[in-house]
Each structure stands twice: as C-alpha cells, then as structure tokens.
Amino acid sequence: MGHRILIVDDEPDIVTMLSGFFTVKGYQVLEAFDGKAALRQIEHAPDIILLDINMPGIDGLEICDRIRGHVACPILFLTARIEDADKVRGFAAGGDDYVVKPFSLIELEARVQAHLRREERHSQETSVKFAGDLAIDFAQRCCFCQGSRIVFTKKEFDIIALLAQNPGQIFDRERIYERIWGYDSEGDSGVVSEHIRRVRAKIAEHTDRTYIETVWGCGYKWIR
Fold first, then answer.
1. What is the rounded CA–CA span in Å between residue 208 and residue 212?
2. pLDDT of residue 47
C-alpha cells in the first residue's frame, strides 16, 4: 500500500493534476479544496501534506499552525510567495519545506520522497535516552520530564534528537538547518533560533535545568 498524501489547494486544476500524478506513482491521494475540508481530511492520517498557502477563509499558514501540535507528518507548502518573511512565517508555523509555483512535478516528487525517507529513518529509532530530568523517547518522538509528557512539533523534536545524540558537539545554525530542513530547502537558517527558543520554553515549563546551551559566535550544543 502506497503512502497517503493529502493535497490541499483552492485551484481545482492543480488538485486534479497533482492527484492524477501521485495516483499513477502509487500514492493514496486525499483531496481538499479549502481549509475546512483539509482539517477534516487530517483525520485520515496522511503521511505527507502538500498545502497551498493562499486560500480564502482558513489559509495554509493557519491550517499548519492548528494541526502541527497534533500531526507529525511532513508539511510542504505550495505557494507563489517568495519573500523571506513569508518563508520564516511558514517554518515558524511548523512547515517543513516550500515548493514555489510554478514547479516541476519531477522535482516535487523528489522532495516528497526525500521527506518520506527521513520519516522512515526516524520511525526506526526505538531507543530512549535519559539526560538529567529528561527522558527522550525516539519512537514516540516526545520527551518526558518527571512523568509529564512534553509534546514537540516535528522540527522541534528533530533538533532535540540531533543535539542529544551528539552531546557536547557544537552545531551552528547553518549546519542544523541543513541536517533538519535539508540542503535543497528554500528557507533561512534564522528559523533555527526560533525553534530552539520554543524547545527551551517547553522544557522550562517542567524543569529549570538547561539542556541546549548557546555557544556564542559558534552555535548550540547539548549539555551532557
């Protein structure tokens, strides 16, 4: 059974084109033409979401922001916007990648496959790492602190996993961005700082211990 892909766009021609393409490629395709329909389709647990930003009513950014705390699958924005500020907003909302219209179907499929391969690698991680008050469960992709579960977005947890699996090693923003978002993403490494800020804030709700240290002028490291 192929991966389940949700295509959300208010332009029927685009949905029809993408639906036909990915169906031929062996995907199970879910369709939505507006934000409300997209939220209903989320209940079918897609493996990846192609999400148009510019839609009337509930736009793509709001959908992403609403579902990201509950949906771990990759979200790829389809958009004609190319401003850096828009990209930062999209990544801050929990998006994983941008595909700018008009796009190549071959390139789009390659990006989809790359994100799905990353997800498959993550799903094979079954160990639990203990660090101070924190227990990191790589299978459930969440953390526990003194019995309380801390839920992170996909990218937030990816950053935790990268740093925690390499304790003491310093990663600069550019390297974190390349490892988590991918070399071919069209974003800005500045989004890394915002994600780390949110990770720290969530952990601080449960313990006063600092796990991610800023090494000024160099980057970030996980404290042993």
1. 12
2. 93
Structure tokens at 79: 């958009």
Q: Cα separations (Å) of 78 from 5, 31, 34, 55, 153?
A: 14, 14, 14, 11, 20
Q: Residue 100 in contact with residue 79, Cβ under 8 Å?
A: yes
Phi, psi of 168 (to 5 degrees): 85, -15
Measure the CA–CA gap between 143 and 44, rounded to whole angstroms: 25
Helix (H) or strand (E) holding 110: helix 105-123
Tokens 């796009």: give the residue. Answer: 103
Rounded to whole angstroms, the Cα distance separating 67 from 197 reads: 20
* pLDDT per residue as tens digits for the range 33-67: 998 999 899 888 899 999 999 888 888 999 998 88
Identify which has the larger pLDDT, 223 or 224: 223
The DSSP call for residue 150 is: E
Interval 110-125: pLDDT, tens: 999 999 988 777 665 5
List C-alpha distances in Å: 92 to 31, 97, 137: 25, 11, 24
